[in-house]
Amino acid sequence: MPTSTLRIALAQLNLFVGDVSGNTQRVLDAAARARDELKADLVLMPELSLSGYPPEDLLFHTGLRRQVESALKRVREETRGIAAMVGYPEYADGAIYNAATVVRDGAQLANYRKQELPNYKVFDEKRYFKHGNAAQIIELNGIRIGLLICEDIWEPRPAVAAKAAGAQLLVVINGSPYSLGYQDRRESVVRDRVRDTALPVVYVNLLGGQDELVFDGGSFVMNAAGQVVQRVAPFVERLTPVDIDLIDGKAVPRSAHIEPSLSEEASVYGALVLGVRDYVEKHRFPGVVLGLSGGVDSALTLAIAVDALGADRVHVVMMPSRYTSQMSLDDAALQARTLGVRYDVISIEGMFEATLGALQDVFTGREPDTTEENIQARIRGVLLMAISNKTGRMLVTTGNKSEMAVGYATLYGDMNGGFAPIKDCSKMLVYRLANYRNAISPADTKAIPQRVIDRPPSAELRPDQKDSDSLPPYEVLDAILELFIEDDLSVDEITARGFDRATVGRVLDMVKRNEYKRRQAPPGVRISDRAFGRDWRYPITSGYRTR
C-alpha cells in the first residue's frame, strides 16, 4: 500500500512567443483548473512558459525582461493551493538563464537553471543562455522531485546529479519541436535516463506552431522499468492528471491512458494542420488564399488549409492559361465544391498576351524558353497577391521540398506568399499524405480527386509538359535529396548506394545553384530532421563543387 500519493497535472499548453501577459494568464488558468478540477498538488508548465519558446533575440530586449519579471511576480502571488513549475528566462548576474521556478502560495519553493543547452539543428541556446550547474530538488507529499528542463534529459549528467541529490522522481518540462519519428526518439532517450537512475520520469511538452516549428505535445510518463504508463494525445491542448504513489520509499507512477502512436502520415498531417492554424491565428489573418492548379501539391495544401481553418476562411483561385488542360479545370472545380470553399476562375491569357506584346521587341530573335513559363507563374503571383492585399487573407504557397531543393519553382511567381505548408514534404510524401487525407474522408467522398493523385505531375506552362522532362523520376530524386540534405553524403557516397553518378551530380548541382531562391522563400512547417530554413545554413555564394 502507498504511504502517500502525489497528483501532478501535465499542462500541455499552446503558448505564444512574446505574448508574456497572455502566456501568464494561460499559466494561471491552467494552475487554477489543475487545482480545482483535477485536485492536483503540482502542475508542470512547458519550457519558457512565460516568454514562449523559442523567444530568440526578443530575449535581448529590455522590455521583454521587464514584462517577464512582472509576470513572474504575478505568478508567484496568484498561484494558490497548488505548486506550479513554470519555465521562464531568468535575468541574473549579467546573464540569461533558461530557468524554471516552482511557486506556491506566494513563495518560491525552488529555482532551477537548465544545465544542458542545445546548439544544433534548430537550436542555438548558447547564443542566449548561460549554463546552470546545480541540481534542484523539491519535496511534495513526501516525494523528492528532481527538476529538469528539456535538453537536460538528453544527457546523463543532470539526471544522475538529481538522483545523487536525493530525487525519487524526475520531472522535465520541454519545448521539443516535432519532426517525423521524434516521439519514439524522445521516449528512447528518457528510457536511457531511467536506466541511468532507476527513477521514473514525468515529461510534459509544449504545443503549437511557432514560425517553422511545430510543438506536438505528446507528454508522457515512464516508470522505473522504462515502460510508458501514460501518454497524452499529440497536437491538442490537454490538462492531464498523473498519480504517483510512494511505495517502500520509491515513487511509482500509476498506469493510465496511453494514447496510441500515430502512423507517419497521420503524424505529419497533424503537424501541418497545427502549423498552418497557428501561423494564421497568431498573425490574426482572417483566412488564406491559394492558387488551385488541378495538381496534387495545391490539392493537398487546400485540404490542409480547410482542416486547419474551416472552409469559410479559405479562398481558392484557378488561373488557367492556353496550356491548362480541361482535366485540371474539372478536378480543381470538383475539389473546391467538395470542400465547400470559395472558388474563382481568372484567366491569365490576356495578361500573358499583353506581357509578351510588351516584350516583343526585346525578345526578337530569341526562341521561347523558361522565360515564358516564368511569366505565367509571375502573372498568377500578381493576381493572388492582389487578392491577398485586398481581402487581408494570407497567401499560402503550394510548393513541396523536392521542388524547393532543385529550384523547380518561380521566384516572385508560385513562390509568392506568407507561408508554405508543404515546403518540407518531399513529392513522394505529398502523394502519401494525399492518399491518407482521402482515406479519412467520409465514405461517399474524397477530399482530393483520385485523378489528381494518379496523373503524371505537370506545371502546365508549355505544351504537353511533364515534370519528368526537367527532373529525374521523383522516386529517384527524393531518395538522392534525402541522402544529401539529411545525411550530408557526397556524390561518391550517394553513387555507392546504387544511383547513377551523372544523375546524382546533376541533382546536387541544382540544389547548390538554387540556394538564392530558398533564401527568399516563405517559412513553412518543419517536419523532417533537416528542413530548409533555420537548420539549413548553406552559403549562396560558394565555390564548392559537389563532384
UniProtKB/TrEMBL annotation:
GO annotation, cellular component aspect: cytoplasm
Gene Ontology terms, MF aspect: ATP binding; glutaminase activity; NAD+ synthase (glutamine-hydrolyzing) activity; NAD+ synthase activity
EC number(s) stated in the UniProt entry for this protein: 6.3.5.1
The keyword ATP-binding is annotated on this UniProt entry: yes
SUPFAM superfamilies for this protein: Adenine nucleotide alpha hydrolases-like (SSF52402), Carbon-nitrogen hydrolase (SSF56317)
Gene3D superfamilies xrefs: Carbon-nitrogen hydrolase, HUPs
GO biological process, one term: NAD+ biosynthetic process
Residues binding deamido-NAD(+): N374, E403, K517
Residues annotated as domain CN hydrolase: 6-246
CDD domains: GAT_Gln-NAD-synth, NAD_synthase
Enzyme class: ligase
Domain of life: Bacteria
Amino acids binding L-glutamine: Y120, S176
Residues binding ATP, per UniProt: G291, L292, S293, G294, G295, V296, D297, S298, T398
Alphabetic keyword roster: ATP-binding, Ligase, NAD, Nucleotide-binding
Pathway recorded for this protein: Cofactor biosynthesis; NAD(+) biosynthesis; NAD(+) from deamido-NAD(+) (L-Gln route): step 1/1
Catalytic activity: deamido-NAD(+) + L-glutamine + ATP + H2O = L-glutamate + AMP + diphosphate + NAD(+) + H(+)
Catalytic residues as annotated in Swiss-Prot or TrEMBL: E47, K114, C150
Described function: Catalyzes the ATP-dependent amidation of deamido-NAD to form NAD. Uses L-glutamine as a nitrogen source.
Similarity annotation: Belongs to the NAD synthetase family.
Stated name of the protein: Glutamine-dependent NAD(+) synthetase
Species this chain originates from: Povalibacter uvarum
High-level lineage: Bacteria, Pseudomonadati, Pseudomonadota, Gammaproteobacteria, Steroidobacterales
Gene name as annotated: nadE
